[in-house]
Structures are given as structure tokens and as C-alpha cells.
Amino acid sequence: MKHRWLSWLAALGTGVALAAQPQMLNGLMVIVDQDVITYKDVMSLVGPTMEVLYKTYADQPEVLRQKIEQAKQDGIEQLVERKLILHEFDHAGFKLPESLVDDRVKKTIQEKFGGDRAALTKTLQSKGTTYEAYRRDIREDFIIGAMRLKNLGYIGSEIVISPHKIEKYYAEHLDEFKIKDQVKLRAIMINGKPKRSDESARELAQEIETKLDEGASFSLMASVYSEDTYRSRGGDRGSVERTDLRPELAQAAFGLKPGQRSGIIAVGDTFWILLVEDVKSNYIKTLPEVRSAIEGTLQAQEQSRLQKEWIDQLKKKSFINYF
To answer: pLDDT value at position 64?
Structure first.
């Protein structure tokens, strides 16, 4: 299982298949000062991503090839940045107390393995790695986190974004905040075949409709009778757009006003009763509604910019050769 993605790569075509050949795995990809990054290093990092890409784009070979190539390049850059930061730590003469690493390892073992180091070791062996490599990775993660904090001097949420920048972003990205027609919807769904005949299903739906006409709570009826995954929520489906619903349901739902209920709607072997609680026509979210989201976006952009500047400075001081 741990190398299943290699066989997947081999099935994608000549260009990628070559990358999966065993003799290539230890081939050099990058030299960073005196350290090397091999193809195996890259594939170990991006392997899980490769699995997701294969499952997602298996029927689109060319798209899959492009996505894999991008993932590989992203992985290479992540590893290069990692080497650069670790080198900067060493060149600066910093020292990391090993007790901090030991404490972090113990905490991880306690949280993930109930304090059982043997269980950790067994898990690592199943992944083709060792306790020593695991501890080294934790040590390096510790150093990289500390170096980023030292050199960038903040965490993302501490970056101050001016109101003017937020307002400017909002004005320039109005399309991002457009909301299509929506209805806040509750629904009761009754299954027909194969659970019961269509006639029996419709009769049950009619009984529910009668109870609703007599004043029964829609959410209560949904929690008792609805046979879909929203039953536990009283049939509450939240705010939905037309495209979120089957055409028959969309036509009925978007023809109702707030507080109105549909009749029985047959959709294939199912029967539905809908309740519209609110209607929102096409509109653009206001600045107060999206201010926090915009601020988070701009903080992330600024964090990426400062991170890139720092890494570019480290690259200028280092020897890097890509193969």
C-alpha cells in the first residue's frame, strides 16, 4: 500500500512511468549546498497527493499528468525551502535543546499512541521509516517553525490589514461576493420502491400532509418520517441554490414564498414535501458581511509575500542546482 502510487504512476504514460522506475528513485533532483534531494524524497512527500489526484483525474490522463507534474514541482520547492531554513539555523550558530525535541516526541506519542512507543515504532515500520527518522523530522519541524517566527516575526492573524485595503479588495472583487437565488429549505422525503410500493409511499406522504394541514410542526414531522440523511436535522437543508436540487424540486421550491409549503412532489421512486422558510434573490454580500473573510485573504497574501522574500534571500546565499 505504501508504494501503491508508484504503480499508478507507471500506468499514466511513458513520461510519468519513467519516474516510477526503481533506478530513478534515488536520482538527484536538487543539490542545496552540500545536501541532496532525491526523487524518492520528493515522492515520499507528494505520494498522498498523488493518490488523491489519481482518484480524481483517472479518466483524464492529460489533466492527471499536468497535476502530477505540478505536485512534483511544488514538492521540490517545499524541500528546497526546508533545506534552506535548516541551513540558516546552522549557519547562525543557533542551538536547539534536545530536551525540547524529546518533550515534543513524548507528547506526540501520548496523544496519538496512548504513550505506547512500541505502537509508534510498528506504525513507522509499516510506512518504511524509523523512529530515528521520525524524531529527526520533529526536530526539523521545530527548528523551521522557530525560524519562521524569528524571521517573519508574526503569525498570519497578527498581520494588520488597513480598512482601506479591505475596502479596495471588496470593490475590485465584487463578483466573488455575488449570491444567486437561494431558498432556506426544509424537506420530507419518503421512499417508494424497493422499500414499499409507490402507492403506499404516496399514501404515507398524504398522511403526513394531512397532519401538517392540521398544524403539526414540519420539523417534527421530518424528524419522525423523513427517510433521508437530513432527518436528524428536522429536514433542514439550509440555504440552497437551484442547481443544488433536482429540477422537479427546484421548480417547486423556487415557486414558493417564505412560509409556504409544497404539495406532494414525485421524483422517481421518492415523494417529497417542501417548506420554504426564507427566500434570497440575487444579491451581493455587503462589506460588513465579508470583511473578516477579506481580511483573512489579505493576511494570507501578505504572509506569502513576506515568506517568499525571506526564502529568496536565503536562496541568494546558497548554492542550488536543479537537475
So the answer is: 92
Cis geometry, peptide bond prior to residue 97 (ω within 30 degrees of 0): no
Grid cell, residue 21, equals 522506475
- What are the φ and ψ backbone dihedral angles of 215, each rounded to 5 degrees? 110, 5
Is the confidence at residue 105, as pLDDT, over 50? yes
pLDDT at 6: 46
- Provide CB contacts within 8 A for 140, sequence distance 6+: 82, 86
State how far the Cα of 89 lies from the Cα of 148, in Å rounded to an integer: 11
Q: What is the pLDDT of residue 281?
A: 86
Question: Cell 421512499, residue?
Answer: 191
pTM over 0.70: no
Domain 181-281 maps to which CATH number in 3.10.20.10, 3.40.50.10610, 3.10.50.40, 3.40.50.150?
3.10.50.40
Quick one: which of 192, 179, 186, 191 has its CA closest to 252?
A: 186
Residues 6+ away with beta carbon under 8 Å from 245: 253
- Contact status, residue 240 vs residue 183, Cβ threshold 8 Å: yes
| Cell of residue 247, nine digits | 429540477
pLDDT by residue (tens digit) across 227-236?
999 999 999 9
* Residue whose C-alpha cell reads 399514501 in the numeric block: 203
Cα 281 to the center of its chain, rounded Å = 29
Residues 192, 271 contacting (CB under 8 angstroms): yes
* Domain positions in the chain: 4-91, 98-153, 154-173+285-323, 181-281
Alpha-carbon gap, residue 247 to 303, rounded angstroms: 44
Nearest CA to 270 out of 191, 214, 208 is that of 191
- Lowest pLDDT segment from 79-83, 115-119, 222-226: 115-119
Mean pLDDT confidence for 158-171: 92
User: Which segments of the chain does DSSP mark as H helices, in order?
Assistant: 4-10, 14-17, 22-25, 39-57, 61-91, 98-113, 117-126, 131-152, 163-172, 198-213, 218-225, 247-253, 287-316
